[in-house]
Protein 1
Amino acid sequence: MHSKSYILGIESSCDDTAAAVICNGKILSNIVATQEIHTEFGGVVPELASRAHQQNILPVVHQAIAKANIDKKDLSAIAFTKGPGLMGALLVGTSFAKSFAMGLNIPLVSVNHMQAHILAHFIDDENKEKPNFPFIALTISGGHTQIVVVKDYFEMEIIGQTLDDAIGEAFDKSAKILGLDYPGGPILDAYAQKGNPLAFPFTKPKVGPMDFSFSGLKTAVLYFVEREVKANPKFIEENMADICASIQFTIVDYVMDKLKNAVKETGIKEIAIGGGVSANSEIRKVLTEAQQKHGWKVHIPKLEYCTDNAAMVAIVGQLKYEREIFAANDVVANSRLKF
Ligand code: KG4
Ligand code: ZN
């Protein structure tokens, strides 16, 4: 590359309004406004998300540019999340990015949110080695559960995915049954660390070798808890750690089964994880152990690049900018965008 390019990334697909600036692979700023409004409803309310995005987007973009210590006139391109996600939420980021790029007379780059989760591994970080192609990406969050073969930056194939709930929903819905706050994943994880993972066995749902299903697990947890509480009203509080550890163990063991199948199927032993559930302590532990145990090479990015963020949008923006893959000015958001 001959000169410096500054790319602004904008992410607004779900409940985080985010903006980041990248310069030749290095993240200069990475701002996220998380919408607290959804906590009291126990899940993301789309209408409220759109409104909060509209409220947050300008301050967040402003902060990202200021923190990067540049002027908006220094920007070379603007990248935004085109989809998949909530339509009303995507429209805010898309419309903002289009207008801003037009105002500055610079190119616009559209970004697939799921590809961005994967390509976040290519952000420069002295402490981390970048994955080598081909590798397997495991994207696990409140909205997604996918196993993807990544042959090149923009050559990806989904080989496994959830048929119903996302893995984060499995954590959050189980946590809700136990009376824990939303999002319950991290709370369940914290209890699980003090419990016995083998205390209460749950059956792992049977679907295709690399696919996932989590709705049955949620029902199994619900019936189990209802039955036990009938016999002992204090069952949950007396066994919280063991219940959480057992649920977490079941989910993580299930993910490992699927990954082992993917490695067997593809012959690829390099694995890169992303998405908010990558924060889970048990997943991190078993994947780290798998390096020794199965000879895998595992990449776990910084947590701020795992959860929804705009740094991942900015790195895709840069990769596309370098290849001159620009969006037309009539580009539209797509809530069901595929690879
Ligand atoms: O990527 P993310 O921030 O947002 C999207 O869903 O796109 O992921 C949030 C999800 C929530 O379901 C949350 O409960 C889950 O990630 N999560 C966890 C942990 N930390 C976050 N699940 C299990 N264990 C954790 N430590
Ligand atoms: Zn996401």
Protein 2
Amino acid sequence: MYNLEQVRQDFPILSREVYKRPLVYLDNGATTQKPRVVVDSMVNEYYSVNANVHRGVHFLSQQATELHEGSRETVRRFLNARSINEVIFTRGTTESLNLLAYSFGEAFLNQGDEVIVSAMEHHSNIVPWQLLADRKGIVLRVIPMNDKGELLQEEYHNLFNERTKLVSVAHVSNVLGTINPVKEMIAYAHAQGVPVAVDGAQSTPHMAVDVQDLDADFFAFSGHKIYGPTGVGVLYGKEELLEKMPPYQGGGEMIQRVSFEKTTYNHLPFKFEAGTPDYIATTGLANALDYVTALGMDQIFAHEQELTRYAMEQMLAIPDMHIYGQAAHKDAVISFNVGNIHHLDMGTLLDRLGIAVRTGHHCAEPLMHRLGIEGTVRASFGLYNTKEEVDVLVAGINRVRNMF
Ligand code: PMP
């Protein structure tokens, strides 16, 4: 296990106060705080290297290109992708999934074809498919879940038919914390000849991911949720599929030759990367991935599992507590309501105690409908959170409860 106190020193923001109280940051599902190495690497690049990447003849441009392409190799290693051609830089999970829906949709989907998603998807793994449904008349099928927040595997199997062309499912639910058995779900889909996309926004920060071991056909994640900068993310895709898919956006970088008569496209991964990439953010992302890798993804997972177990035990003991998501395999996310205290009131009062949690529908309105609620309070843990912070949260919830 890494030294928690030492690790917390790497994150300057963790030592600040809000309302004269020590910050207890439990909104890691929305975004994570940044270690000094990540921010420093970006500042250093701006101050000493900055130049636009690719095709530059001058020294700085070549150095910036080396850094940017080196970051792609870091991502490849982190995901254990076969090739850097399979690593497409995007603005984040949302853009990755929009790219996928658009381009996979253009290449492979026709009127009446079906895409399977789950009841616990984030809006960014629902709405891009609905836009495609409007454009192409595809049909969305939804895997239901039980009351613990586990996807019903038999029902999942029953959704497949000859029109099923893709499964797109969250690795970890940002509301329930459920760790979905994506490896098994992928194996099942493959046995039916159907590829699978995984939304890894909430899994990559917490557990080791190996896209070859999962045999995922596509995998999306965001830099800012894994201690990296905002504005950068990744779409991994198997090369043979990406080769068959058309560009998502047009512009510089993604072309080979342009004429008014005929334009040809660049090879992978550049075919999908129109315009100047955020090459500073890719450096930050690579440093973030190196940072968590050095701590050890398995150590991070073990620490957060212990925190979650500790928090669940104490929170379940609070009278009138309702926790949404009690799957057997659960990640570091706890969504709850207490009695009939409105989630917004709970969140606002916890905030006054220095505790940052998120409230609302968490961009998963269909899931809220399934649960029959409007919203929850959500505490989500990161690698730097402590049991003392869980104690502060539990005391805070009890205090708010006593006020009502
Ligand atoms: N999917 C899941 C499961 C998420 O939790 C999030 C972020 N809350 C997203 C997708 C979207 O990520 P981003 O806003 O970074 O594009």
